[in-house]
Amino acid sequence: MNRKLLRSVREYKRESFLTPVLVCLEVFMEVLIPLLMAKIIDVGIKNGDMGYIIKVGVLLVLMAMLALAFGAKAGQLGAIASSGYAKNLRHDIFYKVQEFSFGNIDHFSTSSLVTRMTTDITNVQMAYMFTIRLLARAPIMIILSLIMTLTISVQIAVIMLITVPILGGALIGIAKLAHPHFIKVFDEYDVLNNTVQENVNAARVVKAYVRGDYEVEKFGKVSTIVFKLFTKAEKLVAWNSPIMQFTVYAVVIIMVLIGGEDIIQGTMQTGQLTSVIVYALQILMSLMMVTFVFTMIMIAEASTDRITEVLSEVPEMKDADDAIQEVKNGDIDFEHVNFSYAGEGGNLSLKDVDLHIKSGQIVGIIGGTGSAKSTLVQLIPRLYDVTSGSVKVGGMDVRKYGLEALRDQVAVVLQKNVLFTGSIYENVRWGDEHATDEEVQRVCKLAQADNFIREFPAGYDTMIVEGGNNVSGGQKQRLCIARALLKKPKILILDDSTSAVDTRTDALIRQAFREEIPDTTKIIIAQRISSVEDADMIIVMDNGEINGIGTSEELLKTNDIYREVYESQVKGGADNE
């Protein structure tokens, strides 16, 4: 078991330690039981001594009860230890993911992270439980049973000593052959989960384009690959049982031949032969347990590597020990910024961006698809770090701030709006969990969301389903804007966040910004000229570079891109009327 992962056992160390101890006590009782059975046969029954039979029988029952008690308690503690271990692993992975920057998250797909926190952790949990129970039980059982067999018949003990490594080697060899197939299975699980996730999230699109058959076929192909890989692995593992059964029966026959001859010669008694057969079965069954656990460990090894990969991922962004915890104001400065998603040496998404925004200004950003508008604003709350140059907020490089302090003062309504399962109150309170109902309602009015919320039968207590699929795109955007306003940030970024609302509502939202949060720097990325026309400053982006900066009037005179967009929207709209 991976040492890094074993740190997650933490408060369940006691249960993890006591489980194998209790298992050893259970095994000790089980090893003594065949010996007492032999005594009953060879002494009590042979001599017709009922008193001896009753006395040893009572002791036999007592030992069986103790074995049962030890086994039951070991099972209980083992379940607590393994379940607690899995709980801590899920906790550690989830909290680790919270530390990831967008760059770290880009290393893993969503479906892969889900698989690691579910299927992979379940595999590790099962392997851990079997390890502290069965893997502790099997070696002790084999050793004690061999010792007891040796005291009865050296010949049979030698046969067992020869059989154990041969059988153990064969079973472990099978497990190793199956291991590569199990590794491939979990990679395909990621693909399978991703297929299901995409289909469920885009169910409306699938139905709208009548692509159900295609999605079913795609799922079927991935599912078939998982089936074939599992089948290959299970075909190999399936050899365990026949090999085991053949060995068991062969050894029993040999023992009966040797023991029968010894009984005839008077060197062994019937009860002793019975106990030797029981010990042999215990040894062989213990070997089967070892193989089973070894197979589980082999399966879990692939899962362990995948979990360790997440836990070992180094967050790209960490707070310095002397990180600044207060943002002075909403000033924003880009100083010769270059940025590449691939890091140093990659293709630049932003090229030599030099930009200065004063606190409280309204800044509009327009540009064609792929012009890096969203990339530009994502550097402000430090969702990504610059490749070269610097981004400053409040006069300080964003890398000098504590991430929580910086992001608490930079509210971002991203291009892809996300709502969570819960009431409207709960969703808006993501901006401030301590906000009163009145404060929530106030920001919803500013975001032009209050009217449609009150039309719901439950009003602000209306439950939002997963992904916000029970509200329209425009309603979702307004709720996300309200959520951002509740933070009372020094910088508010709207990344094409009013595209689904009509122009009148858009104008009312912008008016509320001017009147209610005049000191907040407001950055509006938009496709509509009307959304940014009255901004203090408009930035025109083109191919990762700033193509022009100025007011609407200035850009109409000096910037071809802005003038072309303006004429196509404003004049085109007038002509259509």
Task: Write a brief caption for the model.
By secondary structure, this protein is an alpha/beta fold. Helices cover 65% and strands 10% of the residues.
Fold blueprint:
Elements (H helix, E strand, L loop, with lengths): L2 H4 L6 H35 L2 H50 L2 H4 L4 H43 L1 H48 L1 H6 L3 H26 L2 H26 L4 H43 L19 E8 L10 E8 L4 E6 L5 H6 L9 E6 L2 E2 L5 H6 L1 E4 L8 E2 H5 L8 H10 L3 H6 L7 E2 L8 H13 L5 E5 L7 H14 L4 E5 L3 H4 L4 E6 L2 E6 L1 H7 L1 H17 L1
Structure description:
- With 577 residues, the chain is an alpha/beta fold.
- 65% of the residues lie in helices and 10% in strands.
- It is built from 20 helices and 12 strands.
- The strands form 3 sheets. The protein has a 6-stranded mixed β-sheet.
- Strand 11 and strand 12 (545-550) form a beta hairpin.
- Helix 6 runs antiparallel to helix 9.
- The N and C termini lie far apart (72 Å).
